[in-house]
Amino acid sequence: MSLKAVIFDLDGVIVSTDEFHYQGWKRMADEEGIYFDRKINEDLRGVSRMESLRIVLKKALREYSTEEKAVLADRKNKYYKELLQNITPNDILPGTLDVLRELDKRNIKTAIASSSKNAWRILELIGLSSAFDAVADGNDIKNSKPDPEVFLLAAKRLSIDPFDCVGVEDAEAGIDSILAANMKAVGLGYASAYPKAHYRVKDLTCIDIEKLLLGRDVD
Ligand code: G6P
Ligand code: MG
């Protein structure tokens, strides 16, 4: 039976913002004298800003108060937003527009489920702010991925039962979130190596729409 909706993660699936997140955290961490590298950055994929900060601060040489943590998170976000200003529709990841067109032809609903509080800003910058039937982002939720909240909210906004949805993710935390929402899970990029995903592909250019809508690899 074909699924009724496809719910996409944003960062790493529709647009690659990883490098900007890395640069933002790196600049903040260097200023604070906190060790940070690309390997640690991998653990921040898909998780919220404050959870990311908690991971970054594991290497800190002292404790930070709640107020100080808020200041550090804001500072990183300021650096990140400066870098984001440079993104354009050219930064939409390959395959995205073709997949959206194919889904539209089949009357399949689409949504975004992102942990990011910058999701709308990013969608506007890449010209896709009205390309999806619903958006759920970091401003709407209490519990970040791997909790299912953001995927469940996206399904609710589409008025489609989670069981009839497939989620597309590049992060392990995101795949866990999709599975906890009782949806089919497609793993791309980094998550294409994650065995828990039902259907795993390199990126959106390699996706088979029939397999996507079955939510599994049928070979
Ligand atoms: C996405 C990224 C994460 C990031 C999170 C929060 O899920 O993959 O790396 O930490 O969004 O982003 P924000 O824009 O709210 O700081
Ligand atoms: Mg992602």
Please write out the topology.
Layout: E1 5-8, H1 18-32, H2 38-42, H3 49-56, H4 66-84, H5 96-105, E2 109-113, H6 119-125, E3 134-136, H7 149-158, E4 165-169, H8 172-180, E5 184-187, E6 199-200, H9 209-214
Question: How would you sum up this structure, described in words?
Answer:
This protein is of the alpha/beta class. It is 41% helix and 11% strand. The protein is built from nine helices and six strands. It has helices at residues 18-32, 38-42, 49-56, 66-84, 96-105, 119-125, 149-158, 172-180, 209-214, and strands at 5-8, 109-113, 134-136, 165-169, 184-187, 199-200. The model has no long low-confidence stretch (mean pLDDT 96). The structure holds 6-O-phosphono-alpha-D-glucopyranose and magnesium ion (MG). 6-O-phosphono-alpha-D-glucopyranose binds next to helix 3. 6-O-phosphono-alpha-D-glucopyranose is lined by residues 11-12, 21, 44-49, 52, 77, 114-118, 138.
Largest sheet: 6 strands, parallel
Residue stretches low in confidence (pLDDT < 50, at least 5 long) are none
Output the number of helix runs: 9
Number of strands: 6
The kinds of small molecule bound in this structure are: 6-O-phosphono-alpha-D-glucopyranose, magnesium ion
Q: Between the first and last Cα atoms, what is the distance in angstroms? A: 16 Å
Q: Would you list the SSEs in sequence order as H and E?
A: EHHHHHEHEHEHEEH
Radius of gyration: 17 Å
Principal-axes geometry comes out as globular
Strand content: 5-15%
Overall pLDDT metric:
96
The strand order across the widest sheet is: 3-2-1-4-5-6
The helix content, as a percent range, equals 40-55%
Given helix and strand content, the structural type is alpha/beta
